[in-house]
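Re-run with default settings, no changes from the original entry. Doing this only to confirm the output is reproducible before filing.
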Amino acid sequence: RGQKFTSQLSRRPIRQALVLLRRGALRVCLKMPRRKRHSGLEVNIGGRREKKARRQRNRKEKDPEKEGNYRTILKENALFEKYYQGQDLIPEGEWDQFMSTIRENLPVTFRITGTRSLAESVRGCLEQRFFAELSGLEVEGERVPPPQPIPWYPTRLAWQLQLSRKVIRKSPLLSKFHAFLVRENEQGNISRQEAVSMIPPLLLDVQPWHKVLDMCAAPGSKTAQLIELLHAEDTPTSSIPSGVVVANDADNRRCYMLVHQAKRLNSPSFMVTNHDASVFPVLYYHDHADIRHPLYYDRVLCDVPCSGDGTLRKNPIIWRQWNPGQGPALHKLQLRILNRGLELLSPGGCLVYSTCSLNPVEDEAVIAAELSLCRGAVELVDCSDRLPGLKRVPGVSSWKVMSKGGVWVTADGLAPSERLLSPTVFPPTAEQARELHLGRCMRVLPHHQDSGGFFVAVLHKKEWLPWQKQLKLAAPHTTGQSSMQQEGETASSSAEQRTGTLDQPSRVGAVCEPESPFPALDTGSQGQDTGSQGQDTGSQGQDTGSQGQDTG
């Protein structure tokens, strides 16, 4: 800093230098030592650039595959290919196309905010000012593909771009377009969001009067979309819907990201909570007569923590970190979150379960275990006619389980080191699979529409869950207490009892255990993860140590 000040001073007139000399500024600058101590370490002010360049040259000589400060990630994983080739998830003859697609970078997608009255004008500005000019554009002799609307998103409010930063810097028109997108994103008129991430809120079919819960909301792109759907019928005179969006996340730091994302929409019908989703408490509200009621939700979104192998195109580090043990390690946590979401859902409401993983252990296995536990109170919804234009494949009814070391395992032939696997990770029998209708789930494959991988299942709650009905019948009727309040306290008691340990089994869990040959969820162990599975799930931001607390 002193050198910079001195160099600037040398270009000043002599008269100004004398003024600074009288004030003492020049004397302090010239007496600044060449070496200074900072946090106990000596930092050499001079020669920093030379030393940095020397270190970079040495790194380049030692590791020629390294580009800049980042090592080139080899997009290969033998266990990944072995695992998914054995699952038969990819249609026949499409494996090579699937592998070549997931090795490419993900295209840029954005969505025009639907809650703004200027949404149509923003889209018209994009189409007239930029999209028309970008058609036929060439950069260094190569044609730049023009932006394309996502075919299955309603009213052409979502677009996809095949642009890299290198191309944007070389074209003034693309730089201007990029600056426009950044400015509109900061103002809340558009939102950067992956294409497949837009699917769950659309399938929820949120209305302005709905009470919506987003259980694992951060970083907030889906939550912002839910808020927009809640305000879809706003008018210039009325912009406060009767519904509400409650966005929850277990990570406190990610909750701040969630607030920042939703703050751009300026919605009064929005609340952020910081809690473990698997034991999310029953919230209460007071009506106009000051009567306390539990809050149950018309729509619930469970976008649970997952291994994320559907995001290989934007997170290439997963190529190096992925192993087949991640899915079984997260299975229990995902099942607990889904179970708690269904408990908080009102009868007649809908829940969307989604992951950015293609692994059936994290997808169909969780759905099958929960449907078996609910004993007919919940059913899968067929959404094959929803979102026309979206290419999808139905869910599978049979899958294989692989150990962390790459060995195929079965429920009967588990080694002692593999007995920590939950029995619900294994597929049901053919007869049970037909009753569960697992083909109503949907899976989006990356090579079908140049997107990421995704799994979605829509569940409809027909009635209270078996353990909720048992507790409701056993709950004493207290005078001066509304029926809704009694139901809320019953649900809180249910969540508390169902998170007990194996040494202290839940009475209600024992009564409501499904009488089915399909391995049922051990309700006594829902609050505790053991062994390495608990360690893996703890790294996903879920505090498993606090699950035995009073969630009421």
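The longest helix spans residues 326-344. The chain is about 35% helix and 15% strand.
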